[in-house]
Amino acid sequence: MSEVYEKSPFLLAYIKWHYGRGLKELFAVFGNFLWFVSNFFSFKLLLKTLFYPWKRLGETYEGGLNLNAFASTLIVNGLMRAVGFCTKTLVMLVGLVSYVFLLIFSFFIFVIWVLAPIILLGSVALSATFFVI
């Protein structure tokens, strides 16, 4: 503990830490979680490769005037691009839902963090009144 906190009475030092350094560290943790979710789902890469074939699967057209081979290659490559698009879109939607859930969860944790000392003091005061009555 730093000297600033050691020179203050315990309750005042706790309040300084809770609403000062504690909040900074809480926001740093929130930032780390948000960074993790965005990198885990790799939104940039998924957007960049949204219309690429799924897992780079596809056929190459050999050339010439073979219409069956051309149609087969066109259909397989189109299907692989459609599968890639659907899969990447689904992954991005799951990532977006996770990101929004994490933001909402972080907000509730922030509210709990801010109100925790007040709730603690209120519950101690309320419990003391039960012993007096």
UniProtKB/TrEMBL annotation:
Domain of life according to the entry: Bacteria
Keywords attached to this entry: Membrane, Transmembrane, Transmembrane helix
Organism: Candidatus Zambryskibacteria bacterium RIFCSPLOWO2_01_FULL_39_39
Chain segments annotated as transmembrane: 26-47, 90-108, 114-132
Protein's name according to its UniProt entry: Uncharacterized protein
Source organism phylogeny: Bacteria, Candidatus Zambryskiibacteriota
